[in-house]
Amino acid sequence: MQTDWNDAQALQQICNDVDVVIHAAGMNAQDCAANPVTALEFNGLATARLLAAASRAGVKRFIYLSTAHVYASPLTGVITEETCPRNLHPYATSHLAGENVVLSARQRGQIEGIVLRLSNAFGAPVHKGVNCWMLLVNDLCRQAVTERSFILRSAGLQKRDFVTLQDVGKAFSHVLDDLSKEQVSDGVLNIGGAWTPRVIDMVELIQSRCFAVLGFSPGILLPERSDSEVTLALDFQINRLLASGFELTGNAVAEIDANLLLCREAFGGDQ
Questions:
Q1: Quick one: which of 121, 124, 122, 78 has its CA closest to 261?
Q2: pLDDT tens column, 200-253
Q3: Residues 6+ apart with CB under 8 A from 228
């Protein structure tokens, strides 16, 4: 069903007789960069409209899926929920606008708003039509199957926090069923995997899993390394989530294997 994000009445009808709204719709980073005004309109204003509708409908809890990339670009150093967001990319600023709407309503007691800042999730999508193939792991799995090689634009020395889709799903269930209002003091929670390999490490892991699952090992094509490329420390902390009783149980290898098998089925033909 298509949603008219400008139709207040339609949004309220969606929210009627609902206890919790999970707002996970949003523009991806590439589209935000290409259309920063549209990004602000959707990630910011549409969030405000949906939240207002939810409030009028008596919704108790409003969960907004934001991004860890509001903090900085690149993500480096120790990052907690208290870290000041300072990334000026339209993807980050538009999501931060949406966050502010939710947190403002929470502060006023209008609705129990919660912001989830998600790091780099990975795993097989429900079907190939899901708009997720620009994400690093998904893109690498697709490259492995369609190109039988990985083409990197850098030496891959930067670190990223990765979290399995299994753990993301568990985190949502935890926030829905187990998390009290008092356990999220200011309404913000980081969701990550406490796993920060370098990009090249992830490439090599996918390469090894491709050999194990599909029977071939894709090559790795790297540009000439620049002297400015270094590995910077990254500690994306999810202590608030863990302190509330959440446990990470996702299996990275299983997620990668499932992604490779889906890519073979969707894109690989008879190879």
A1: 124
A2: 999 999 999 999 999 999 999 998 877 788 899 999 999 999 999 999 999 999
A3: none
pLDDT band at 39 (very low <50, low <70, confident <90, very high): very high
Q: Is the peptide bond before 74 cis (omega within 30 degrees of 0)?
A: yes
Radius of gyration, alpha carbons of the chain? 20
Place of tokens 């429900």: 126
Per-residue b or e along 8-19, where b marks 16 or more CB atoms closer than 10 Å to that residue's CB: eeebbebbeeee
Residue among 221, 257, 258 nearest 147 (CA): 221
Beta sheet of 188-191, edge-to-edge order: 20-23, 61-67, 112-118, 188-191
For residues 50, 34, 190, 115, the Cα torsion angle rounded to the nearest 10 degrees is -10
Secondary structure (3-state) at 61: strand
- Using CA atoms of 133, 91, 12, 19 in order, give the dihedral in degrees to the nearest 10: 70
Asked if 140 contacts 183 with a C-beta cutoff of 8 angstroms, the reply is: no
**Core vs surface per residue 93-115: b (16+ CB within 10 A) or e:** bbbbbbbebbbebbeeeebbbbb
Contacts of 229 (CB under 8 A, 6+ apart): 154, 155, 157
CA distance 240 to 82: 11
Distance CA 155, CA 2 (A): 42
